[in-house]
Amino acid sequence: MSSIQKAKQMAKSLRASLEKRNQEVSHSVALELVAQQLGYKDWNVASAMLPDENPQPAVTFDKSIPILRIFDETKAREFYIDFLGFSVEFEHRFEADLPLYLGINRNGLQLHLSEHHGDASPGSTIFVPMQNIEILRDELLGKRYGYGRPDIVHQGWGQVLEVYDPFGNRIRFCQS
């Protein structure tokens, strides 16, 4: 039973009790009296402020996990694991000679990499809000990766560090 339903039940009981003493009150007066007993100005305020203990379920979302298309496991591991510093969360193949689906993570940033044809379009861009972008830039430059030496670009909306994987996908790291 919700708090509002309990308050209405209290008003009904109050009316019944007063009627036994030959003091008739309307239901609305009983609701007003109960609202004041509960510390509210009037019934309208009480009905708006009383907690609903049986709220309707709301649609909620957790964080999204982008899926990026890859074509070569060795190149993907070299870029995402060795260069960007991700660690492998899981690997999945339906059979040994079938495409790889790889989950990776770095400090809360989760990505899924897929060799499956229908999972993602090559050449995608993902936008990653972050902190301490200079540390990431310095770390990446220190690795002297042969296929990219990213630097920070100052935009009106933040500092941006873009990296391109061997499959045409772009990760746009941004610090506001």
TrEMBL record:
InterPro entries: Bleomycin-R, Glyas_Bleomycin-R_OHBP_Dase, VOC_core. PROSITE patterns: VOC. The keyword S-adenosyl-L-methionine does not apply. Gene3D superfamilies: 2,3-Dihydroxybiphenyl 1,2-Dioxygenase, domain 1. It comes from the Bacteria. Residues 60-176 form the VOC domain. Keywords: Antibiotic resistance. Belongs to the bleomycin resistance protein family. This is Bleomycin resistance protein. It comes from Pseudomonas fontis.
